[in-house]
Write a structure and sequence with these properties.
- By secondary structure, the protein is α+β, with helices and mostly antiparallel strands.
- Helices cover 19% and strands 29% of the residues.
- It is elongated, with a radius of gyration of 19 Å.
- It starts with a strand and ends with a strand.
- It has a 6-stranded mixed beta sheet, with helices on both faces.
């Protein structure tokens, strides 16, 4: 696969839906934030195109145009593709784990939660980059689709719960498009602080609605 600069994309982005909730918002998010990458099988009249952001990949086109080695760049990624790509994906990797997802769209308000004493909830800005960088490594995925903690802090699309100068919970727009903002959140591993994610999500959801967008939530489908 060949990495394609975004200025070469105008005709190719029509391969993907626009204004759709969930991970389908990835392509518009990459176009807006320039935080991801675009891949094609060939520069002139490509037959396959992939949008990559964070650990996620959307793959479209003709799988017959690729060999299993073509997908090596997407090892350890979450790949979303039409069913016709499944034989190719199975041949490309030693282990493929199905990952069934459900997408929820916010339709009604959620009761507010009240943060405990000593905890404040606020929108992140550039001054919070250091605090966001200080999250445990297991939580660093929260800013990956923005290209890092500084980009997320400056985006205006993240809210956090602070205990002193320490961030203990974050909710952010994980994928942004023209109609939806797919929400993600993390909380430090402390049972006493788990409820703080709801405060951050509520604040973020109000922000998303004020921008004229609809919050969505993508999660693992129950078995």
């Amino acid at each position: 696969m060949i990495n394609l600069p975004s200025h070469r994309l105008p005709a190719l982005v029509r391969w993907f839906p626009t204004g759709a909730p969930g991970s389908a918002a990835l392509t518009e998010h990459v176009l807006t934030t320039e935080a991801g990458r675009w891949w094609v099988d060939r520069v002139i009249q490509p037959r396959v195109i992939a949008a990559e952001c964070g650990d996620h990949v959307l793959l479209r086109g003709d799988p017959q145009a690729l060999t299993p080695k073509s997908l090596a760049v997407f090892a350890d990624h979450y790949i979303e593709a039409p069913g016709r790509f499944l034989p190719l994906i199975g041949a490309a990797f030693d282990r493929v784990v199905p990952w069934k997802r459900m997408v929820y769209v916010k339709r009604s308000p959620v009761p507010d939660a009240r943060p405990p004493r000593g905890v404040t909830v606020g929108r992140l800005n550039a001054r919070d980059t250091r605090s966001l960088s200080g999250l445990p490594p297991a939580m660093s995925w929260i800013h990956r689709t923005w290209g890092g903690p500084d980009a997320l802090a400056r985006s205006g699309c993240a809210w956090a719960a602070f205990k002193g100068d320490r961030i203990v919970a974050v909710a952010c727009t994980y994928f942004l498009n023209t109609a939806y903002e797919d929400v993600a959140c993390v909380t430090v591993p402390d049972p006493r602080l788990q409820c703080l994610a709801l405060d951050c999500i509520n604040a973020l959801s109000s922000d998303i609605t004020a921008r004229g967008h609809t919050p969505s939530w993508t999660c693992l489908a129950s078995s």
